Amino acid sequence: MTYNTVLEAIQNALSLRPSGTKVQVADHEDAEIAILDYIEQQRPRKAHASATSDVNCELTWDAAFTDTNYSFVVNGFDALGNPCQITLISKTATKITIQTFVDATIHAIANSY
Questions:
Q1: Residue-wise over 81-94: b if at least 16 C-beta within 10 A, else e?
Q2: Helix, strand or coil, per DSSP, at residue 34
Q3: Residue from 76, 94, 93, 96 nearest 85 by CA
Q4: Where do the DSSP E strands lie in the chain?
Q5: pLDDT at 1 > cutoff 80
Q6: Helices 3-13 and 25-42 meet at what angle, rounded to 10?
Q7: Which pLDDT tens digit goes with each residue over 53-63?
Q8: CA separation for the pair 72, 46 (Å, rounded)
């Protein structure tokens, strides 16, 4: 879902309908659902986990993306509060898999693009 597809749904339901015709409830509802879906798609996702040294750690997003077109930031800290090095292993619509060199608490946030 993109901004343009939402705009098109709104225009089809409202301004592009034939002159003198009423707004169709189903078209209006489809446009409003498209708006809500677009807003939901744009909200940031969060993930938290405890990572074990040299073991793959999955950070599952609190809501899945529709695809892998998103960017993310990951931060990790050891038991003393020191930042740790994080290596990305894989990225899917539902999660990222990372690895650390020390036991750590990991936090991530992501936004679609």
A1: eeebebeeeeeeee
A2: helix
A3: 76
A4: 45-51, 57-60, 70-77, 86-91, 95-100, 104-112
A5: no
A6: 160
A7: 999 999 999 99
A8: 9
Q: Which tens digits make up the pLDDT trace of 70-91?
A: 999 999 999 999 999 999 999 9
pLDDT at 66: 87
Digit-coded pLDDT (tens) for 26-51: 999 999 999 998 898 889 999 999 99
Burial 44-68 (b: 16+ CB within 10 A, else e): ebebebebeeeeebebbbeeebeee
Q: Which two tokens stand for residue 60?
A: 């599952």
Give the C-alpha separation, 61 to 44, whole Å. Answer: 10
